[in-house]
Amino acid sequence: MEATPTTGIYGLMAEFDTPTQITEAAEKAYAAGYRKMDAYTPFPVEEVCHAMQMPKSKMSLIVLTGGILGGIGGFLLQVWTACVYYPLNIGGRPNFSWPSFIPITFECTVLLGALSAVLGMIFLNDLPLPYHPVFNNPRFNRASQDKFFLCIEADDPKFNAADTRKFLESLHPVEVAEIEK
Amino acid sequence: MANGSASAHPLAPNPVLDPGHNFNSIGDKINAVVLTPKFRPGWVLGLLISFGLLNVLLVSVAWTIFRGVGVWGINIPVGWGFAIVNFVWWIGIGHAGTLISAILLLLNQKWRNSINRFAEAMTLFAVACAGLFPLLHMGRPWFFYWMMPIPLPQALLPQFRSPLVWDVFAVSTYATVSALFWLVGLIPDFATLRDKAVNPIVKRLFGVLSLGWRGAASHWHNYEMTYLLLAGLSTPLVVSVHTVVSFDFSVGVIPGWHATIFPPYFVAGAIYSGFAMVLTLAIPTRAAYNMKDFITDRHLDNMAKIMLATSLMVSYGYGSEVFFAWYSASNWEKYMMFDNRMSGPYMFFYWSLIFCNFIVPQLLWSKKVRTNTVILFIISIIVNIGMWLERFIIVVTSLSRDFLPSSWGMYYPTVWDFGVYFGTIGLFLTLMFLFVRFVPIMSAFEMKLLLPESKVKGGHH
Description:
The complex is a heterodimer.
Chain A: E1 9-16, H1 19-31, E2 37-40, H2 46-51, H3 59-85, H4 102-124, E3 148-153, H5 161-169, E4 175-180
Antiparallel strand pairs in A: 1-3, 1-4, 2-3
Chain B: H1 23-35, H2 41-67, H3 81-106, H4 116-137, H5 163-196, H6 200-209, H7 217-250, H8 262-288, H9 297-328, H10 331-341, H11 347-359, H12 367-370, H13 373-400, H14 415-438, H15 444-448
Helix pairs in contact in B: 2-14, 3-4, 3-7, 3-8, 3-13, 4-5, 4-14, 5-6, 5-7, 7-8, 8-9, 8-13, 9-10, 11-13
């Protein structure tokens, strides 16, 4: 089943107490050349993302696209209905009475924008995910409460069970745990 | 960057989070309400009473559908009656939730973090109640899909130049986006509940609801952006919804409706009534669950100030209506304002609305009133009533006496009108009771961000 050479373990996980410690740890790990790693925090800590040099989130582009498609789609739906499919004379207005199509165009923009935001986030974050190895750490339930974890994954080209453990221990964590796949 | 902790400045306002809390104490306190296996007697009693009212709704709706809308007091000329009054009232109440969750987020108002979840839930349930009224008012609600732009055998599509169709789009978009915003905010808190739950069934349930959220920095990165973008989309949306609702009236030519002041005046009124409802619900909830350290007097004070400001805005709207009626020199507009609303058969309700929405809220200028929960609670109820009366006056006085005296007619609601109205209050309260028990009533991860220790010391590069 396993294609990767380091079968058996997903990575090494270090536990920290504060957002400052996890940010410093992520900075040092990045500086040491590790790339395949992630931090786990109970609330968003922007500085960690900066420390790991994460690229800008694609969310804004997804939502912009969704919003534009929704707006164009909503407007064309009304134009097609009013001019092509079922022209009606309403108070002598022209068939293409575009100002009265603006409210629905706006609502469709927001609707598609919001739907693409939520679906895009779920898709980009690879959710829903029924199983993930990080939960194999018995202390990981604190990651959603009050503890901060840094996991260097075994897929990382620089990963070496002994050296990486030594490196993580040099960051003064509460503990370093080996995470099974 | 300002955070929620107490400041040393002597003029600094009260903290938005009482001192002495840490990450665990915040999470424990919020989640304990959900995770405890016990049911408090007060909660059970409240739920039973609300559920009783909900049954009034079921009976009234069943009778309305069985016999038709003729069981209501609506007739020609007053074809809108309670249904539209209640629809606008409920939709307006919802607006505070979106304002708190979206606009205050964009304005970086940290105090919103403890009331946004609660207010968003209120929005969702209020919109659910609001949606019932136009559906029932159609008479044959099972044909509701005729309002949607879908290819039907009879080849009918909506008439997109009508504000009533705009309303369908605005309200359904609003309901969808509010639900999405609420659910996205809940994902990390469901993950916390999953990690804290002891009962395996509860653990599994919250595990499914949290979608397997694990708090990865790479996920938070997208999540934060999503949350911000949803707030950015909701902000113009919430303004547009009540604007479109006001178009239902102002696009018509009926005296008293045909006014350009309507959109801003409706939006201000919506926020006004919404904050009143947040206070009506938050004051008893924070007392019952002993959450005074999370919803502090500062929150009540801030909400009371917003109520005062929006009260002055709607009062300006009432003043504008009077001015326009006089300045237009139109006989019908003048008659509507001076001879019908102010001194006609419904004058009692007009002057009650002025009393509830303009006179009573002036008490909020006093800090003593704003920090006295009992008085604040009573004022919030009065404002709720006042805002209902405002919609009653707009809908009923204008329709009952339009241009031609021979077509005038009075409107009298029937017991079924009241049954559906009070029934929706039962639906709303039932949902609120279920919400406070089974869903964390505050966003725990956002509350943790109020703590000074959530900040990275030294900053980043």
